[in-house]
Write a structure and sequence with these properties.
Oligomer: single chain
Structural class: alpha/beta
Strand content: 15-25%
Number of helices: 12
Radius of gyration: 20 Å
Distance between the termini: 24 Å
Order of helices and strands: EEEHHHHEHEHEHEHEHEHHEHEEE
Length: 358
C-alpha cells in the first residue's frame, strides 16, 4: 500500500461567546483535518492542531509531498521521513503538529487495513470506558461560571477544569474560584489552568491564594520550558502541578523528569509528535513516578486517538473532554459517541473510528 495524496480540509465553528484564557480570546474555532489517501482505497484522518493560518500550507506543500509513495502502515518510517530527512530539523511548533496529524492518520489507515481498532495495535484495549473531566470553564462572570460548573457535575463529571490568570484580574479570579467551588461542592475535583501566565514568584503568590479552594491540580503555572520553575513551585506549594501540553517529543519532556517538576504530565498527541511519541512519553512518566494525563482539546480526531491510547495504557488518568459544544466531536464518529456520567466509551470500529462527513 502506498500514500497517493495528503490533503488539508479546514472547518470552522463560530462561538456564541468568546473562549478566553490568559493568553488569548477567540470567537471562532478552526480545525484543519488531514486526509491521507492510499492506492488501496483507504483514507486516514488526522487533525493538524497548530497555527491554523499555517497548517494547510505546512501539510500540503511541506509534508504531503514527502509522504507520497510511502507505506502508511510502516508508521515509524513515515514519521522519520517527515521529521528527520532534512538538514534543517524542526523539533517543535506547527511543523511537528503537521507531522503528528499525518502520523495519526497512518495509525487510522493501519487499523482499517488490519480490521482492528487502534487500541488493539497499541497492545490491546484494557478498558472500554475512560473517566473524563469537563474542560473548560472559560472566563465569564463568576455566577455564570458557577452555574456551568454545577451543570457539569449534575451530568456526572467528578472533575471540572477552569481557565484563570489574566493580568490584573487576581481578585476577580478568586471570586470566580470561590463561586465555582461553592457551586460544585467540596468533593468534586477542581482543576485550575493558567496557561503559562506567570513568572515563578507570581505563580507562587497566585497558587497560595488558591489553596483554600483545594484545587485538584495547578496547570501550566509558568513557561512550559521552565522545568526548574515548575519544580521550585512544587516544593513550595501543597498543590499538584500539571504541565506538558506545550512540549514536543520524548526529549522535550526529559527536563520534567530530571527536575521532578510535576505530578501530572499532559502530552498532546496532536502536538508532541503523534501517538507513538505520546505512548513513549507516558511510559517514561510512569517510570519516573509521574501520572500521565494526556492533553486533548481539539476535534473528535484527537479525542478518538486519546481514547485509544488511554484504553491501551490503563495507568493513564483523566481524559480531557470538551463538553462546551464548540468542538467538532460527535459528527466525526462512525459509531455514536457515547458519554455517560462523566465516562467516554472507546470506539470499536477499525482504525480510529472517525471519518470526515461528506
Amino acid at each position: 500500500m502506498k500514500i497517493t495524496d495528503v490533503r488539508a480540509v479546514q472547518l470552522t465553528r463560530r462561538l456564541e461567546r468568546p473562549q478566553r484564557n490568559s493568553r488569548e480570546s477567540r470567537g471562532v474555532r478552526t480545525f484543519t483535518f488531514v486526509l491521507v489517501e492510499t492506492d488501496a482505497g483507504l483514507t486516514g484522518l488526522g487533525d493538524a492542531y497548530g497555527d491554523q493560518a499555517l497548517m494547510p500550507a505546512i501539510v500540503e506543500r511541506r509534508l504531503g509531498p514527502m509522504a507520497l509513495g510511502l507505506d502508511p502502515c510502516r508508521i515509524d518510517a513515515v514519521w522519520r521521513r517527515l521529521f528527520a530527512s532534512r538538514a534543517f530539523w524542526e523539533t517543535g511548533g506547527s511543523v511537528l503538529c503537521g507531522i503528528s496529524a499525518i502520523e495519526v492518520a497512518c495509525w487510522d489507515i493501519r487499523g482499517q487495513a488490519e480490521g482492528v481498532p487502534v487500541a488493539t495495535l497499541l497492545g490491546g484495549r484494557r478498558r472500554d470506558w475512560i473517566e473524563a473531566y469537563a474542560s473548560d470553564l472559560h472566563w465569564e462572570e463568576p455566577s455564570r461560571m458557577a452555574e456551568t460548573a454545577a451543570r457539569y457535575v449534575e451530568q456526572g463529571y467528578r472533575c471540572v477544569k477552569t481557565h484563570l490568570g489574566a493580568p490584573g484580574e487576581w481578585d476577580r479570579d478568586v471570586q470566580r474560584v470561590a463561586a465555582m467551588r461553592q457551586a460544585i461542592g467540596p468533593d468534586v475535583g477542581f482543576m485550575i489552568d493558567v496557561n503559562t501566565a506567570f513568572e515563578p514568584e507570581e505563580a507562587l503568590a497566585f497558587g497560595r491564594a488558591l489553596i483554600p479552594f483545594r484545587p485538584f491540580w495547578y496547570e501550566e503555572p509558568v513557561w512550559p520550558m521552565d522545568a526548574a520553575g515548575h519544580a521550585w513551585l512544587r516544593e513550595r506549594l501543597p498543590l499538584k502541578i500539571a504541565t506538558g501540553e506545550n512540549l514536543y517529543l520524548t526529549q522535550g519532556f526529559e527536563p520534567l523528569w530530571t527536575h521532578k517538576a510535576c505530578d501530572y504530565v499532559m502530552p498532546d498527541i496532536l502536538r508532541c509528535g503523534g501517538i507513538e511519541q505520546t505512548r513513549r512519553i507516558c511510559q517514561a512518566a510512569l517510570e519516573h513516578g509521574v501520572i500521565p494525563s494526556p492533553h486533548n482539546f481539539s476535534s473528535g480526531v484527537g479525542l478518538a486517538a486519546t481514547l485509544h491510547l488511554m484504553a491501551a495504557l490503563p495507568e493513564t488518568e483523566w481524559l480531557e473532554f470538551d463538553p462546551t459544544g464548540t468542538a467538532i466531536y460527535e459528527e466525526l464518529f462512525i459509531e455514536p459517541l457515547q458519554v455517560e456520567r462523566g465516562h467516554v466509551r472507546v470506539p470499536t470500529a477499525p482504525g480510529l473510528g472517525v471519518r470526515l462527513p461528506t
